[in-house]
Amino acid sequence: MNTPAPPSGATSTWPPLPAAFVALLDAVIPADRRASVERSYIEPKAVAFRLNPLRGHPEATWAALCADTDTPPQPLPGVPGVFTVGPSQRPWLTHHPAAGDGRLYIQGLSSMAAVWALDPQPGEEILDLAAAPGGKTSYVAALMQGQGRLAAVEPVKARFHRLKANLQRLGAGHVHTYLKDGTVVGKLTPERFDRVLLDAPCSSEAQFTRLDPESWAHWSPKKVKDSARLQARLIRSAWAALKPGGRLVYSTCSLSPEENELTVQGLLAQQPDATVEAITLPTPPGILPTLPGLTEWQGQALDPRLAWSLRVLPSDHTDAFYVCCLRKAA
Predict the structure, then answer these.
(1) CATH number among 3.40.190, 3.90.220, 3.30.70, 1.10.8, domain 47-106
(2) Does the annotation place 136 within a ligand binding site?
(3) 142 is in an annotated binding site
(4) What is the DSSP letter of 284?
(5) Nearest CA to 135 among 175, 87, 79, 93?
(6) 152 is an annotated ligand-binding site residue
(7) What SUPFAM superfamilies does this protein's entry cite (predicted)?
(8) Looking at the predicted structure, is the pLDDT value of residue 250 above 90?
(9) Which CATH class is domain 109-328?
(10) In the chain, what are the domain boundaries?
(11) Does 135 belong to an annotated binding site?
């Protein structure tokens, strides 16, 4: 997006966010965080990326990047191989040969947090249940170091082909890909996987920006409800596919509790063998602006264990995101 940011203080220059979404922000964003969240909707964000060990040597890729700019990318504390650049460097990074051939992958820090929570290990059998376009899948593949088995599922044909093409470009062509409805995978592969990642299809509220009103053109409270119904089916399928003792990470790029805590609450109510695990991010405190998951919504008390889940707030370097880590009893 090439639209310039407005001058400082000129927040009214851009079209307002939908009234229903503003009401949601009022309900889920604490007052002391509101100003920074509002700024995030009118300012271009920093760009995060990771070096991809599946395509070349990260050290060589890093050297090539530094040779092409007077402003080297900044390393993300605590996470080797992850860097950020300022908004003005987005075109340079996007069109760099290393981005084109897969030696680096541009990916939001909030999105990476789901993979950090999953903590994939070499030798495991892992499922990515809603995998397209493949950014998280390829990150999981890199962390598995070519050991184990990774399955990626996508039900939409066009997105499935995009997934396969991206994985091939990123050196993850060994990932087993399936054009399949994720809601039935649990029945087809019961208790098979050591870890399951469900970055669920959602209302995409994290994509909103006042710089581009089209970013919310297809959003509505009805879409939130429709997304939540699908998410409830997917999380049940993901749970069925998980081995006893295994870990399920559920995430969305939505702020709506209906798509986040309430979806997890539904699973917890049905599965007494499910527990919520605290998420320890590899970054130092404060790098990612986070809040605990909600334990109350619209006067309804929620499972107190949901406080162990994480809400990543929108900021000048992060998008809105929700992550919950669940463990199935052994």
Answers:
(1) 3.30.70
(2) yes
(3) no
(4) P
(5) 175
(6) no
(7) S-adenosyl-L-methionine-dependent methyltransferases (SSF53335)
(8) yes
(9) alpha beta
(10) 47-106, 109-328
(11) yes
